[in-house]
């Protein structure tokens, strides 16, 4: 489960990311609460607009950010983006403490966070492949998710309590301080132990990532599933904050809900780390599970019961996303990994500007339970799409001897990517590959 931690570079990366993520979740809790209770009168629609501005840039800038992640030194790029995010957090904290912050100004800073994260996210995701060898990539991705969700377990709870005690502005300043942990981790890494990576071609090949994904039906299905859940199912700040208000709870009650969600998320990440490879069918099953448990959570009559169901919501969500992320990373050619991961991050983060305002409007107009049910339907639809593709592609069939048992063929060829359809420079580093479903390697030589 923890084999990647035997590597020095991954250990310092893991520790730095854990500390930084704790601060990030404290800031996220504070930002949601500021918009919902200080800058508006419980307006979930305004909260949805804030999320849309913060997560919209990855979708708009996807071509540029992916190319930059492939073209430049990712370690130095991350130092730059993390520094920018730290400065933005300091600015918001100061404006909140001085009482100058307004809703339009918060929207401007949300957009600033979004632009910085648009460049940070694909570089951070692809950098994992620079830190560990390919056979450990899936494990490292899952441990990254474990770090993220351990922070999610701690950060919102601390943030909720500290908001009540000292106010929201200090949460932004605390997050700014935690960025130093990530910057130090990047600084002390042993650069000679980083995995050499294939250099991406020049600026004229920005579209190679799009063409590559277009010829991979498994990636298209994965992206569609991630989009549906990202747009309509993962609006947890809206769901949890409005449900906390419905149950008569304050900021600490909202923070506790986020931490309870992280208990299941952490369990899902650790179980994903135990698997030797990322299987696409696991993501499909987890999407269906997300739909079912989200629907159940929307029917809970008490705060405690609702909180209990969030454990299972978190488990299914992270299992689906971690498996999808690991599958994309381990089945993509190295020369295009940054651009493909930029597309992946654009789908999952860029889905929020579409879904968050809708979820906020539904929560304001019809109540938070209706908004959660919309997300549940999206999860079930994602599962249906995935299962339909598996059956249509011939990977799922009835067992030869047992009438009511279905089996999955993991060795059936998926597609052939012809290098001549890409640029000459990409073709020079990309052999013809037959990519098999649920295969942890980029492909098998044909």
UniProtKB/TrEMBL annotation:
Keyword hit for Ligase: no
Pfam family name, one: MFS_3
TM segment ranges: 7-26, 46-69, 85-110, 157-189, 219-241, 253-273, 280-297, 303-328, 340-364, 370-392
Domain of life of the native organism: Bacteria
Entry-linked InterPro entries: MFS_dom (IPR020846), MFS_trans_sf (IPR036259), TM_effector (IPR010290)
Keyword terms of this UniProt record: Cell membrane, Membrane, Transmembrane, Transmembrane helix, Transport
Protein name, per record: MFS transporter
